[in-house]
Amino acid sequence: GDTLYYILCAVLSLGVLYGIFLMSKVEKASLGNKLSACCMLFAIVINLLHYNIIGAVELWSGILIGAGFGCYLTNRSKMIQMPQLVALLNGFGGLASSIAAALVLLNMGKSFSFESFTGALALAVGAITFSGSMIAAGKLHRVLPQKPVNLAMHSLLTGFSFVLILLFVLAIGLGLGMTGLCIALCLILSLIFGILLAIRVGGADMPITISLLNSTSGLAAAIAGMAINDILLVSVGSIVGASGLLLTQIMCRAMNRKLSSILFARGAKKQEARSSVKNAAESEYEAKHEGLNAESPECIESAAKEEKKVEKEPEIKQPAREDAGAWLKDAKEIIIVPGYGMAISQAQSKLKMLADELREQGKTVRYAIHPVAGRMPGHMNVLLAEVDVPYDDLYEMEAIDGDFEKTDVAIVVGANDVLNPAANTAEGTPIYGMPVLSVDKAKRAIICNFDDKPGYAGVPNPLYEPRENVILIFGDAKETLSFLYDELRK
């Protein structure tokens, strides 16, 4: 009966919640994932039995197709592709909620009801989640531009589409627009709004975007559950929505960013404004000095001053890459900073090999993990766990950042923005104010990056400038780590 159904729904919801709790414990994360999956499977079966549709061929066909597609994605996707896969699954979750809501609305009468209002809301939130997630997946998979895309009158278009969506939701909810055309227009506008919202987010802010979309996919499912009177869907969707929202807040705090500035690109506008001011100042200077002759007394005097300035500033000698082996042999305390470049190169096994060799030589080796080192929360931890790096060796930024000052050598592998000192000084840039790892305070640093170009945020890194205590080794992470390993064993 209904009583047994509600009891089972409550038990399964608690099972999912407990599974999520276990996933926060590294040693029990796998068990938590399996428990949540089993609870969801039982939830599907219970709903099929409760609504007496266990024999529906169409439903079983859909389940088999979905399961087959899921198995295909599991076998084809590499660990490095997990962020875009998560974004894709978030989108599919939103799409499913949107389809369910549309079917409910198309089979309802033209009068106000709680179901009609929640159905319209689920339709909009689900569609926004789907289109936004597809853009996020495209950016992460590098089939779309990594940099923020700002269209002409972007903010106006975003605000206008949002207002229209609200009007359509109200109209459908009140029964005034309960037609196929209104439902279709609401769906299209929501898809457009999701695209406009996601394309202006840069690659550096993708971890927060994924967390937010995870939250909205759960929210869409919970609202759709209200529309179809399914308490289990409401419960599970609320759990996913709440956990995604908490994760979004944690990521925003870790990056010292406001969610509004990320979604509405306020940081980018400030940067453009400052660039305009700088360009205007340079133009004014050029205009003022345009009429000066190169042989005039003013120019000769200016050139002499510049020469004296250069003479007073001694040239900084950059250490050669061959010095890296001696630095590592002399070091006692070493901190490794892995980044997304290591993930792209799949060089975690080479990094583990180098760390093991350092330990065999009596060094203390720890890993500093920035909250956004990968392309989604916890991504870097999972990549390192793949090659059996002990979890006790991984330290969050808050726990290890103060130790860089007494560290003999910091080894950076494929990281840029998360250690860029410009975050403390370069006002108006996307990373300004973001907490970064204090690699610049280490006694010595060995930076292994593909090249000296800026990271996702597009902000030049002062650590790439000539420094007596920094060795730059450019190239693929596997090759540079192999070079360090060979130099260490000489």
Characterize this entry briefly.
With 490 residues, the chain is of the alpha/beta class.
Structure notes:
The structure is a single chain. The chain is an alpha/beta fold and 490 residues long. Helix content is 61%, strand content 6%. It has helices spanning 2-23, 29-50, 57-76, 82-106, 114-140, 154-173, 180-199, 206-227, 231-255, 259-263, 266-289, 297-312, 324-330, 340-345, 348-360, 379-386, 397-400, 477-489, and strands at 333-338, 364-369, 394-396, 409-413, 445-449, 470-474. Strands 3-2-1-4-5-6 form a 6-stranded parallel beta sheet. Strand 2 (364-369), helix 16 (379-386) and strand 3 (394-396) form a beta-alpha-beta unit. Helix 5 packs parallel to helix 7. The radius of gyration is 27 Å and the shape is elongated. It starts with a helix and ends with a helix. The model is unreliable at 267-296 (pLDDT under 50).
Structural key phrases:
about 500 residues, alpha/beta, 6-stranded parallel β-sheet, elongated
Contiguous runs where pLDDT drops below 50 for at least 5 residues:
267-296
Structural class: alpha/beta
What is the mean predicted local confidence, pLDDT? Answer: 82
Number of strands: 6
The H-and-E topology, N to C, reads as HHHHHHHHHHHHHEHHEHEHEEEH
Rg (CA only): 27 Å
Q: How many distinct helices? A: 18
Strand content: 5-15%
Strand arrangement within the widest β-sheet reads: 3-2-1-4-5-6
Measured as a percent range, the helix fraction is: 55-70%
Give the termini separation: 75 Å
The outline comes out as elongated
The biggest beta sheet reads: 6 strands, parallel
